[in-house]
């Protein structure tokens, strides 16, 4: 009923009934059934039952997984041709690795699907409606357009409805609009837009005070709440920078592996080698090129990073978001509940003239009068209009007896939305006062004087001008200003108070201004400064008034102190801008967006992403959900945030502290740097794994490594050292550097050259040198064939494998720092690294001298003197890389 939604607010209550084909008695049962059939139930679309299964199947479509599965099939085929090679064992190993990788990815997507369930739970299950003149409770899903909702204090509204009766009706629209100020609803017609109308009760919002009736005009996905739900559901989160880099790396390595494997397979066939030999050879090339342990190590590293973040009150739902947060260029922050504390607090009590702060007794007197025009219930837990509650809380802080003051209140006049004020009558020190509390422009016509200190000045243009100057000064600080005026009542004015409000509203004395704000969190300015130091831009996007947004942005350090209108934009201006126009404004420095809608928040995110920025969006309300999902990193508030926001986000701040984002960014940057380190480390061993196969196919020499031995490196000894590099602590300079550029990826040409053509080649040359040394020392001659069971061949393979394992220790130490040696950074503090070194040492020894392992790997012993030569490889690789760091201009992109 979108067409109805555009004009329903403009109608009088009588015409609303006619327009929606209902009546003040409510719908009949037959009408409800008919509308349920035509419009559908008041609920959200449920994802189809096969979606999870399809998502799981999708995980098997990436290049890495396909390559591992195809390799496993080839292994099974090769085992059928020649069972003696035990290739079926390798096939099962590769298949399990592919399955685990797919399962980890599936779990992350499954978590994202829970967002819709949170949206459904946010709405109430049972609601009161009037049908056929009877008030009954029905399921929220059975509400239809034309139903007459009964609204009472504490109710959650279940559908968009036009108010037709209202008695002091106050609602909290913050979950939908993001604004902290409650909204007074009336039954009269409105000329405003639907979302800004004060006669519309929106689904998902809560009744704070009062009662009323409202006719439903939109249900389910047609409600404003439903549109956000649908928008959030339809948005597909873009892949994180790490996902993009991982996909790129997988594609590159897959192309290299398949190309080399197929080329040499065809070469083997042309030269007359047996089919199974060529298959085994092709498998060796593929397995040697593909670092099977890399993706599981990614997952483990990210998981450890998420645990470290959790200790800093940053809960990560999606592991890729750990690194994505470190890549952020822009943080788009909501105001209410994110930068501010999401509670109204009285911060200023000023004299109307000259803006003098009131003394403590004057504050007590002023607030006591304000309490007369307030409606606050409860003692330990105060309830009512948030403004009235703020007045009562401030009185309690100042030591006033709240109950005694309440007993002095004779009558309360409910807040009138058209008059924009409330009133009350109170007895103070034996004198009776009529008190008015409201907007200054609503009170000023009734003023006859303004109190300044103990004197009063007769109202004239100059006096009013001075009061307005004070008012503007307070508003410029981002304060919501409430004026308080009163007059002493004569004895003749003791009649029926309720019928005399209009008569009493005259000859008032303006006694003070009350400044109220949603205070800025104290940690925010320092956190914003750290963001700027780290090269991260901070944008404020809020539904609040421009003046309020601008004041908060200045206090937070998002905007400079000097006033520059170009730095702020309203939703009305943004609505008419194209994406190109918005990008231009962002380039010009616009940093604050006020009075924005959820769609406009997404528009800003889209423009920033078009500028090649990695975007983080913070928020806590239902209205933030679509933008949270559209951003590269969605960050929700854990304490005051809604379930919808938390489920749509990837990261949750457990303490709702903006400053925790900075700690998370530092951890995220560290995670990416560490991933780069262990990627470099793992790829180095690919060189000595590939080189034996190239020599084997090109020259009449034995194969120095078999596939099982390669897997013992990739899935065995390299895992713990890789995890150790993933656990390295943050560098103190991490947050003094700008975010990395998009082109500073994971797998770059300099990294490939460093891994394969420098360190990998060194490992290959030294390990193959010892391999051929053992062979020639044992009597082997060039071109001579050796059986796999030959003890000499087994010993030569053993020393080649053992040498690679030991040289990886030198590689491990060198990867700790880009420009330092790796020995000067507290190596003994990283216990996992020490464990990794121990494992490599023990495994290198066991490869040669432990019979059970010798049998599995098909290796044999060598003289201890040759084993000691293998140890020299540690010094060779570590020293060569250290000399490169000191004297060569060659640098990794990650440096």
Helices and strands in order:
Blueprint: H1 2-5, H2 13-19, H3 29-39, H4 51-58, H5 63-81, H6 87-112, H7 115-122, E1 126-131, E2 134-139, E3 148-152, E4 160-172, H8 174-177, E5 183-184, E6 200-201, E7 206-218, H9 224-234, H10 241-270, H11 275-289, H12 294-310, E8 314-316, H13 320-326, E9 330-333, E10 345-350, H14 360-372, E11 376-377, E12 383-384, H15 386-397, H16 402-407, E13 409-416, E14 421-428, E15 431-438, H17 440-443, E16 447-452, E17 455-458, H18 461-476, E18 480-488, H19 501-504, E19 508-517, H20 524-533, E20 537-541, H21 546-556, E21 568-570, H22 571-575, H23 579-587, E22 592-594, H24 598-610, E23 615-619, H25 625-630, E24 633-637, H26 643-648, E25 651-653, H27 658-684, H28 686-698, H29 707-717, H30 719-725, H31 749-777, H32 791-814, H33 831-849, H34 851-857, H35 864-887
Helix pairs in contact: 5-6, 5-11, 10-11, 11-28, 12-27, 13-27, 14-15, 20-27, 23-24, 27-30, 27-31, 28-31, 30-33, 31-32, 31-35, 32-33, 32-35, 33-34
Structure notes:
The chain is an alpha/beta fold and 895 residues long. The protein has 4 domains: 162 residues, Calcium-transporting ATPase, cytoplasmic transduction domain A (Distorted Sandwich), CATH 2.70.150; 171 residues, Rossmann fold (3-Layer(aba) Sandwich), CATH 3.40.50.1000; 172 residues, Calcium-transporting ATPase, cytoplasmic domain N (3-Layer(aba) Sandwich); 193 residues, Calcium-transporting ATPase, transmembrane domain (Up-down Bundle). The chain is built from 35 helices and 25 strands. The protein has an 8-stranded mixed β-sheet with strand order 8-25-24-23-9-20-22-21, with helices on both faces. Strands 10, 13, 14, 15, 16, 17, 18 and 19 form an 8-stranded mixed β-sheet that branches. Helix 5 runs antiparallel to helix 6 and helix 10 packs antiparallel against helix 11. The protein is elongated, with a radius of gyration of 36 Å. The N terminus is likely disordered.
């Amino acid at each position: 009923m979108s067409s109805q939604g555009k004009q329903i607010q403009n109608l009088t209550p009588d015409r609303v009934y006619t327009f929606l084909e209902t009546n003040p008695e409510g719908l009949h049962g037959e009408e409800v059934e008919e509308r349920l059939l035509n419009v559908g139930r008041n609920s959200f679309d449920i994802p189809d039952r096969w979606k999870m299964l399809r998502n799981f199947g999708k995980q098997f479509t990436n290049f890495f997984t396909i390559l591992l599965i195809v390799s496993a099939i080839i292994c099974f085929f090769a085992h059928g041709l020649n069972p003696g090679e035990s290739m079926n064992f390798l096939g099962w190993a590769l298949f399990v690795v592919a399955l685990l990788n797919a399962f980890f990815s599936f779990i992350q997507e499954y978590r994202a699907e829970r967002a819709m369930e949170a949206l459904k739970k946010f709405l109430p299950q049972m609601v009161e409606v009037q049908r056929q003149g009877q008030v009954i409770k029905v399921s929220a899903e059975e509400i239809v357009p034309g139903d007459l909702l009964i609204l009472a204090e504490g109710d959650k509204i279940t559908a968009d409805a036009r108010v037709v009766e209202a008695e002091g009706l106050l609602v909290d629209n913050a979950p939908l609009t993001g604004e902290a100020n409650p909204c007074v609803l009336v039954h009269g017609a409105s000329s405003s837009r639907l979302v800004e109308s004060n006669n519309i009760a929106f689904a998902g919002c809560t009744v704070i005070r009062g009662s009323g009736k409202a006719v439903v005009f939109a249900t389910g996905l047609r409600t404003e709440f439903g549109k956000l739900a649908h928008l959030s559901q339809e948005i597909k989160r873009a892949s994180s920078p790490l996902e993009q880099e991982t996909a790129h790396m997988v594609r590159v390595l897959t192309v290299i592996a398949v190309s080399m494997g197929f080329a040499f397979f065809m070469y083997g066939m042309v030269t007359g080698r047996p089919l199974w030999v060529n298959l085994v050879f092709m498998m060796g090339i593929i397995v040697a090129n593909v670092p099977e342990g890399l993706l599981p190590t990614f997952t483990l590293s990210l998981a450890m990073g998420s645990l470290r973040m959790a200790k800093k009150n940053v809960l990560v739902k999606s592991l890729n978001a750990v690194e994505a947060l470190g890549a952020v260029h822009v943080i788009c922050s909501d105001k209410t509940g994110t930068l501010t504390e999401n509670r109204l607090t009285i911060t200023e009590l000023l004299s109307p003239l000259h803006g003098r702060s009131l003394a403590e007794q004057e504050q007590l007197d002023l607030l006591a009068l304000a309490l007369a025009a307030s409606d606050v219930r409860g003692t330990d837990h105060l309830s009512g209009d948030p403004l009235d509650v703020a007045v009562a809380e401030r009185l309690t802080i100042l030591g006033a007896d709240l109950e005694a003051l309440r007993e002095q209140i004779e009558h309360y006049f409910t807040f009138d939305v058209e008059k924009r004020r409330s009133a009350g009558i109170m007895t103070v020190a034996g004198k009776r006062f009529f008190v008015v509390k409201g907007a200054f422009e609503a009170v000023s016509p009734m003023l006859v004087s303004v109190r300044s200190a103990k004197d009063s000045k007769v109202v004239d243009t100059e006096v009013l001008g001075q009061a307005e100057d004070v008012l503007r000064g307070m508003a410029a600080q981002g304060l919501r200003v409430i004026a308080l005026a009163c007059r002493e009542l004569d004895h003749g004015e003791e009649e029926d108070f309720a019928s005399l409000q209009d008569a009493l509203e005259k000859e008032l004395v303006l006694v003070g201004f009350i400044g109220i704000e949603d205070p800025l969190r104290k940690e925010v300015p320092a956190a914003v400064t750290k963001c700027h130091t780290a090269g991260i831009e901070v944008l404020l996007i809020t539904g609040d008034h421009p003046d309020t947004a601008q004041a908060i942005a200045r206090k937070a350090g998002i905007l400079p102190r000097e006033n520059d209108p170009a730095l702020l934009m309203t939703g009305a201006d943004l609505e008419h801008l194209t994406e190109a126009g918005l990008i231009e404004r962002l380039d010009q420095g616009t940093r604050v967006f006020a009075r924005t809608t959820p769609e406009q928040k997404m528009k800003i995110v889209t423009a920033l992403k078009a500028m090649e920025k990695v975007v983080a969006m913070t928020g806590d309300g239902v209205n933030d959900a679509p933008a949270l999902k559209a951003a590269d990193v969605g960050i929700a508030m854990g304490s005051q945030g809604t379930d919808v926001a938390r489920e749509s986000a990837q990261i949750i701040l457990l303490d709702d502290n903006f400053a925790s984002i900075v700690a998370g960014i530092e951890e995220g940057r560290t995670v990416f740097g560490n991933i780069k380190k262990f990627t470099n480390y793992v790829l180095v061993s690919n060189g000595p794994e590939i080189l034996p196969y190239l020599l084997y196919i090109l020259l009449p020499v034995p194969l120095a490594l078999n596939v099982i031995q390669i897997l013992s490196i990739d899935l065995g000894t390299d895992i713990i050292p890789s995890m150790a590099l993933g656990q390295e602590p943050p560098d103190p300079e991490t947050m003094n550097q700008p975010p990395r550029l998009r082109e500073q990826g994971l797998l770059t040409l300099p990294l490939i050259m460093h891994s394969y053509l420098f360190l990998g080649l060194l490992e290959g040359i030294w390990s193959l040198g010892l391999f051929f040394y053992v062979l020639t020392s044992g009597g082997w001659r060039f071109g001579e064939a050796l059986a796999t069971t030959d003890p000499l061949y087994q010993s030569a393979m053993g020393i080649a494998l053992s040498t690679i394992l030991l040289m990886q220790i030198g590689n491990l130490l060198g990867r700790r720092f880009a420009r330092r040696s790796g020995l000067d950074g507290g190596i003994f503090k990283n216990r996992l690294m020490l464990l990794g070194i121990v494992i490599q040492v023990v495994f290198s020894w066991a490869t040669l001298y432990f019979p059970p392992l010798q049998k599995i790997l098909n290796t044999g012993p060598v003289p201890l003197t040759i084993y000691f030569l293998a140890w020299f490889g540690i010094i060779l690789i570590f020293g060569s890389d250290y000399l490169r760091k000191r004297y060569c201009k060659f640098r990794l992109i990650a440096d």
